[in-house]
# Entry
Amino acid sequence: DADVTQTPRNRITKTGKRIMLECSQTKGHDRMYWYRQDPGLGLRLIYYSFDVKDINKGEISDGYSVSRQAQAKFSLSLESAIPNQTALYFCATSDSRGGGGETQYFGPGTRLLVL
Amino acid sequence: GEDVEQSLFLSVREGDSSVINCTYTDSSSTYLYWYKQEPGAGLQLLTYIFSNMDMKQDQRLTVLLNKKDKHLSLRIADTQTGDSAIYFCAESNSGNTPLVFGKGTRLSVIA
# Structure
């Protein structure tokens, strides 16, 4: 079974709709991240959380919100989706106690299309 | 803020060696990473190197680090069509900030 799972894997929505992307992990890591990937722009950090109740803005947080309800779960919401939020979204985790740097482990991604 | 730069494209012939280069600006980087992203998939950790090392070898992969020039490279020996992917360089400093990723190098392997 995958250590980092994302649901849904694909989503089509309309402009103005609220949607939520979910991320769950079984790795026991304390840190979780949300990124979006656009062609030619690489990965851009949206939000990250170093522990439950800890939320930090990344490079491109406008238009997004997150919730870290438990150590294993980190959800990303688009309050009112717009077409330029069409992208591939990745969740990642890392373990601050691992002693091997901040190696991040990625989920399989959610492909979002906003019409 | 800190920055990681990579060229966007590289094309090599099957059987040749590939060298993907990366430069970074953070002089306090402690770990540097290479991730691979195959089509339709997430990022997979390939290898990483601690900043007090200058080389790390793992089967067909060789990582070279020039800390003075802040330059990292990934060499893939005997490149195969299955190596076609996007390769991301990333750096970590104190562990109190997330990894900083480059934009990725798309490697195309020509049979």
User: Anything to note?
Assistant: Chain B has no helices and eleven strands. The CA atoms of residues 37 and 43 of chain B lie 5 Å apart.
